[in-house]
Design brief:
Layout: H1 53-63, H2 68-81, E1 91-96, H3 103-116, E2 121-125, H4 133-137, H5 145-150, E3 163-165, E4 168-171, H6 180-184, H7 187-199, E5 202-206, H8 215-220, E6 225-231, H9 237-249, E7 254-260, H10 269-275, H11 295-329
Parallel strand pairs: 1-5, 1-6, 2-4, 2-5, 6-7
Antiparallel strand pairs: 3-4
Length: 330
């Protein structure tokens, strides 16, 4: 997946929270990371014993700027910066085909990474069915988007609408309404995003899943671009294609996709060896070396392994072609 957002590896997103053409082609190389499947996105509570080692490891990797996971999200940010002639889109919708694919975690990390460049970033939690941004960012959800769209808040509470978390502004979902789709398709919603797009450098909209709901297709028409998050361990290709087809039918500008919960070991040996090395996104790490080994020795050994990997890959391809010919003849 990747289109113009080529090689955008937002892998390792959690279960809960923390396209073809010139503007995006689904199912290309969009997720490079050594992290496998994880199951939570919220940060550890006060009692760390409640979290598994895998979950604690994810939280640590998410907070560590030198981790492979953090570098993967920075690669996604860079891809988005080159997704259009004017740089990153002013308003970006982040959605997925099904629930729990890691879209909210992706929004969280993109907001942090864009803010680290000095951009004025705001996150809008438009998932008024199962909101999670307030938990990820650690802010209250007393007043939010639904209150703005229904005018159910007092004038003196206007200052509480936009929360601040370090360098990021957040508009939470607010009170869960009975008719989210109607509110999102209202004129107020389009005016809100238009005004935010003028005030902020980038507006990140966290949307509900595509399949079975009308919210994401509605929002995709109100934003400049759409990023599709796809979980490799959860969603089938059929579901991903169906989601992409539906969001495009609504008129969305899909700039690409980001694969989450990505396991390198499940890919073909030659492909993973060449392009998805487990340490590809890890930098500044102390790698163990044999005593007396020099950089030249290591470089020669790596080049030899690379050549062997390429040779085995070509042999496998040749055998595969021969097998296909035999099957077609028989």
């Amino acid at each position: 997946m990747g289109g113009l957002v080529q090689q955008s590896p937002a892998a390792g997103a959690h279960r809960q929270h923390p396209a073809g053409g010139s503007r995006g082609t689904l199912l290309r190389h969009a997720g490079r990371t050594s992290h496998g499947r994880v199951t939570q996105t919220k940060r550890p509570p006060e009692n760390p014993a409640r979290f598994t080692i895998e979950e604690r490891g994810f939280s640590q990797a998410l907070a560590d700027p030198k981790s492979g996971l953090s570098e993967s999200y920075r690669s996604l940010r860079t891809s988005l910066q080159f997704s259009g002639t004017d740089g990153a889109p002013r308003t970006l919708l982040v959605t997925s085909s099904e629930p729990s694919e890691g879209k909210s975690t992706t929004v969280f990390k993109l907001a942090e990474d864009f803010a680290s460049l000095g951009a004025n970033v705001i996150v809008v939690d438009a998932d008024m069915r199962k909101p999670s941004a307030h938990r990820i960012f650690g802010v209250d959800n007393a007043i939010g988007l639904s209150n703005v769209l229904t005018s159910t808040f007092r004038r003196e509470d206007m200052g509480k609408l936009i929360k601040r978390k370090e360098r990021i502004s957040i508009i939470t979902a607010g009170t869960i309404p009975p008719n989210p789709a109607d509110l999102l398709s209202s004129t107020r919603m389009s005016l809100l995003l238009e005004n935010l797009g003028r005030k902020y450098d980038i507006v990140l909209v966290d949307a509900p899943p595509i399949i079975g709901l009308s919210d994401a297709p509605i929002l995709s028409r109100l934003t400049e671009a759409t990023l599709l998050v796809v979980s490799t361990n959860q969603v089938t290709r059929k579901s991903a294609r169906t989601a992409l087809k539906r969001i495009r039918a609504a008129g969305a500008n899909v700039v690409g996709a980001a694969m989450t919960k990505f396991a390198v070991g499940k890919f073909d040996y030659n492909y993973s060896y060449k392009y998805l090395n487990y340490n590809y996104y890890n930098y500044g790490s102390d790698l163990p070396q044999l005593a007396g080994a020099t950089f030249k020795d290591t470089e020669t050994r790596d080049a030899s392994n690379w050549s062997l990997g390429a040779l085995f890959g070509r042999l496998r391809q040749q055998f595969g072609n021969i097998a296909d010919r035999i099957k077609s003849v028989s």
